[in-house]
Amino acid sequence: MMTRKIKLWDINVHITCHLCNGYLIDATTVTECLHTFCRSCLVKYLEENNTCPTCRIVIHQSHPLQYIGHDRTMQDIVYKLVPGLQEAEIKKQREFYYKLGMEVPGDIKGETCSAKQHLDSHRNGETKPDENSNKETSEEKQEEDNDYHRSDEQVSICLECNSSKLRGLKRKWIRCSAQATVLHLKKFIAKKLNLSSFNELDILCNEEILGKDHTLKFVVVTRWRFKV
């Protein structure tokens, strides 16, 4: 089979953010037109606009942030195509948290450790037998499963019922991972209230209905930005 090499600059237009002109970081796609940008760039842009930065189509008249979503596939492609980009981004994030005197979230710690181990093994020219590798992978996975995301950045939230058709939760204050999504909360509430379907529920913050794919970290950043 014939193969053809493609230079990185030939596909840069497909893996860069049109707002900052840099490689996509935390790639986020507009569901209306499927154009992709860095999440931080897009969120900042949508604070003053409700249209796509590329094609100018109206995302939503009043709540455009509910119609964007994390594009994990695109981000994986970018990290695979651009050498050293993922390691550099992890380093920047660690330095950012250290500068603010905050603990590095668990997901960044994990990525940093795995990236460092990967680089060290290549530098030393060492390769481990498949048996040992599979054993270590299994042990790491078991350790992660038992962690229940406790090492993640945590968010404390209050779930209050404002509907006369539903009873409130006995314990309305909960603390969970910042990586949890609104959909996770809907499933949690439905289970606690013995509802037949979580689709019957809507979760609001500041009188706005939250998108089911939004993480709690995203909600904190976009809905609580100006709160003391």
UniProtKB/TrEMBL annotation:
<dbReference type="GO" id="GO:0008270">
    <property type="term" value="F:zinc ion binding"/>
</dbReference>
<keyword id="KW-0862">Zinc</keyword>
<keyword id="KW-0678">Repressor</keyword>
<dbReference type="Pfam" id="PF13923">
    <property type="entry name" value="zf-C3HC4_2"/>
</dbReference>
<dbReference type="InterPro" id="IPR051507">
    <property type="entry name" value="PcG_RING_finger"/>
</dbReference>
<dbReference type="GO" id="GO:0031519">
    <property type="term" value="C:PcG protein complex"/>
</dbReference>
<feature type="domain" description="RING-type">
    <location>
        <begin position="17"/>
        <end position="56"/>
    </location>
</feature>
<dbReference type="InterPro" id="IPR001841">
    <property type="entry name" value="Znf_RING"/>
</dbReference>
<keyword id="KW-0804">Transcription</keyword>
<dbReference type="InterPro" id="IPR032443">
    <property type="entry name" value="RAWUL"/>
</dbReference>
<feature type="compositionally biased region" description="Basic and acidic residues">
    <location>
        <begin position="117"/>
        <end position="140"/>
    </location>
</feature>
<keyword id="KW-0539">Nucleus</keyword>
<dbReference type="InterPro" id="IPR013083">
    <property type="entry name" value="Znf_RING/FYVE/PHD"/>
</dbReference>
<keyword id="KW-0479">Metal-binding</keyword>
<keyword id="KW-0805">Transcription regulation</keyword>
<protein>
    <recommendedName>
        <fullName>Polycomb group RING finger protein 3</fullName>
    </recommendedName>
</protein>
<dbReference type="InterPro" id="IPR017907">
    <property type="entry name" value="Znf_RING_CS"/>
</dbReference>
<feature type="region of interest" description="Disordered">
    <location>
        <begin position="115"/>
        <end position="149"/>
    </location>
</feature>
<keyword id="KW-0863">Zinc-finger</keyword>
<dbReference type="Pfam" id="PF16207">
    <property type="entry name" value="RAWUL"/>
</dbReference>
